[in-house]
Design brief:
The complex is a heterodimer of chains A (292) and B (160). By secondary structure, chain A is of the alpha+beta class. Chain A is globular, with a radius of gyration of 19 Å. Chain B starts with 5 loop residues before the first strand and ends with a helix. The radius of gyration of chain B is 16 Å and the shape is globular. Classes of the chains: A alpha+beta (292), B alpha+beta (160). Chains A and B meet through α2 and α7 of A and β4 and α4 of B.
């Protein structure tokens, strides 16, 4: 690996100053599971690596049922799935955190890093979209918030400007009778990149017999993870039935514009969108009933 | 841009250790080449194989995907720190007795991950063992003997 300078600032202000002074040749290090591979293999370059794990605000996870979740950008995946209360409120996020790489990757890799790496197949991004989360971005101009479905702009590309960093991902509180789930299809049992991933979140009516509100998102079928707006809006008011979930899966296919590669063909991926949206809606509804 | 060497203090296998490193050096490089702790192996050097697994602040990590400078203030356990004063850990005994290794390159990584697993879940199911060892690759054994040896070690530890 080419040599670089290393800094581990203790505050956001200090990090912002370092990034601003680096003229775009700085890279942010959280868990390092993507960036260190990219630097070693020459896919990316850095004169300065800024380790953000010693910034308290980025390392904190704060949750309350009333206020929701503020997930510091460097919190590793295991901090999410070992949290006693998150699985109930943010099931899709916890599902994804458990299957990003293997255990050793989850010990380091953060959801903030997964978001900023902006892979079309990132496991944690569809859950963030389904949970209606936004990125709290800090930069020379202060704070700005960007909804996760607008964060990625292409494979490996996103809205971050030089000098900016994601401080935290913020999730709205979860209302009663809600549930969510993430599933991905891979040909192995573990440790693989999604051929397709899907996340669904539902909020049921108090009567528990229909969907009041839903958000569906898919990954690995377009240059960026996608919010399935038409499917999500269509689901409002629909009865809890296999037909409902299957129809939402059909509507979700409309946002898919996948490529054919070694992991799957266009046709296969579009088919999987239908399968996984149906499955995650089924799981999300079951969890919502449990949570009610 | 060349950088000056960074001074790092960490606790490795119970001892306070100081070393100098370049920012670009991985923890694996420093463990093996500077500190001569050659138990952690370089398999793929890109986070896939798990042969370089060490325990850092209580969780298993891949030493090839950690910068040595990040270890400042950290507590580390490598495979060299698993035996207790010359007595092999039950995992090591069970790997030997169960023939859970052939070429041995993956073994230190498996032992360290399995140690982290048993520290956390003293009685894991077969599924839990396979799931948690998924980031460790073995091209010799076909995994069954490794999984059985971890199960045996869990039994021995429970009987102690």
């Amino acid at each position: 690996m080419k040599d670089f300078r290393y800094a581990a600032p203790a505050s956001i202000a200090e990090a912002a100053k370092l990034l601003a002074g680096a003229n775009g040749s700085a890279r942010i290090l959280a868990g390092g599971t993507d960036i260190l591979v990219q630097l070693r293999e020459g896919m990316k370059d850095a004169d300065l690596v800024v380790d953000v794990k010693r910034i308290p605000e980025l390392a904190e996870l704060t949750y309350s049922p009333q206020k929701g979740l503020r997930l510091g950008a460097s919190v590793p995946c295991y901090g999410i799935y070992e949290h006693p209360e998150l699985a109930k409120a943010y099931g899709a996020l916890v599902d994804a955190a458990r299957i990003v790489g293997g255990w050793q990757i989850q010990s380091r890799a953060s959801v903030g890093g997964n978001l900023c790496n902006s892979s079309p197949a990132a496991d944690t991004i569809p859950p963030l979209i389904a949970h209606h989360a936004y990125a709290d971005i800090v930069g020379p101009g202060g704070h700005r918030n960007v909804a996760i479905e607008n964060f990625c702009t292409g494979p490996g590309k996103n809205v971050l400007q030089p000098g900016e960093l994601v401080a935290a991902i913020v999730f709205p509180p979860v209302l009663p009778h809600s549930g969510s789930a993430y599933e991905r299809f891979i040909p192995r049992n573990e440790m693989d990149i999604a051929v397709v991933g899907a996340a669904s979140k539902v909020q049921l009516a108090k009567t528990l017999d229909k969907i009041e509100f839903a958000r569906v998102s898919v990954g690995a079928v377009a240059p960026t993870p996608k919010f399935c707006q038409e499917a999500s809006e269509w689901l409002a008011g629909k009865p809890l039935s296999e037909e409902t979930y299957a129809q939402a899966g059909e509507l979700a296919k409309k946002v898919a514009s996948p490529i054919t590669d070694m992991r799957g063909t266009i046709e296969y991926r579009v088919h999987l969108v239908g399968v996984l949206v149906k499955r995650t809606l089924t799981a999300a509804v079951a969890r919502a009933r449990q949570n009610a | 841009m060349p950088s000056k060497k960074n001074h790092v203090t960490a606790t490795i296998n119970g001892q306070s250790v100081e070393f100098l490193c370049e920012a670009r050096q991985s923890l694996l490089e420093v463990l093996r080449d500077t500190l001569r702790l050659t138990g952690a192996k370089e398999g793929c050097n890109n986070g896939n194989c798990g042969a370089c697994t060490v325990i850092m602040n209580g969780v298993p990590v891949l030493a090839c995907l950690v910068l040595a400078v990040e270890a400042e203030g950290a507590t580390l356990t490598t495979v060299e720190g698993i035996a207790d004063q010359g007595h092999l850990h039950p995992l090591q005994e069970c790997f030997l007795e169960g023939a859970a290794l052939q070429c041995g390159v993956c073994t230190p990584g498996f032992l360290v991950t399995a140690k982290a697993l048993l520290d956390k879940h003293p009685n894991p199911s077969e599924h839990e063992i396979r799931f948690n060892l998924a980031n460790n690759l073995c091209r010799c054994t076909g995994y069954d003997k490794i999984v059985k040896s971890v199960q045996e070690a869990a039994k021995e530890l429970a009987a102690k």
